[in-house]
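Q: My collaborator sent me two sequences in one message, no labels, and asked for predicted structures for both. Can we handle them in order? The first one she listed is below.
A: Yes, handling them in the order given. First sequence, followed by its structure tokens:
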Amino acid sequence: MKKLFFIWKLLFIPIMALLLANCDKNEASESENITVDVKEITLTETSPSKELKVTSSGEWHFEAQGLQGAFGGNAGSTDWYTLTPMFGDNNQIVSITLKEGVTTGKTTSLKIVGKNNTETVSLKFSIQ
């Protein structure tokens, strides 16, 4: 009987430590969701720059068709807009600016990808 109690005691402590460590990881990862303050941004000739507020407690980055990172920096660019920053962590304000010389209407989806979720923002350039 003493042997059985001793074995139970030896197994109980490591099992409880694993369970407690696993709970902390789940709680931390659930809090790393991304949110944005708007779902649609329209750039125009008279309003060629807008801001997007990204709220997160973890790392995130942008993905979009044709979006390329600028060499040595944290800006992204396509043939018709730029955004800064292109990646980050925690809460940040992202600037999205229309490039000069764009003369036709454009539209794309900006994906902000984090550890637990992805937010999508529709970006448009409208000629007035």
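Q: And the one she listed second?
A: Here it is, processed independently of the first:
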Amino acid sequence: MEASEDADTAANGGDQLAETPIERVRELIERVVEAMGLDSRVDVEENDEEIRAYVHGEDVGLLIGKHGATIDALQHLAIRTAYLNQTGDRKAVVVDAAGYRERREAALKRAADQAVADAVKFGRAVELEPMGAYERRTVHTYLRDRTEVQTHSEGDEPDRRLVVTPVQGSGDQA
């Protein structure tokens, strides 16, 4: 057995690793859900931009974890597992449970809108709460077309945060 085959087998609990990224994501999520003893169903969809796994069922709050820490870690593992030993183009991989990602994205957008309003009104940089890379990317993307502010990230994990800074002369535009 070659070294890459050993890694594939070890990463999949002794079984052969699924052939496609979507199958790998499904297997990983199903194994974690089963190991956590959750009575849940896993659905995985793929489009041109992403692979998205949904977990439906009882007690998925345990899978989400405090401040989304568990589901963020699972999503990180899903990304790594989906493209294990593969090079080339990679799609985004998103893991969601009970609509957590949509609710969290809405909360992030509200916080971003408030930060823009405050930055422009007071003419100073506004820091958002510490967040993971996926959430920071969501806010950067959401605000990228806003001409009155710029965004950047500061700090080190796990306290890395997004900063919204007003563009010179934008205070009159609000």
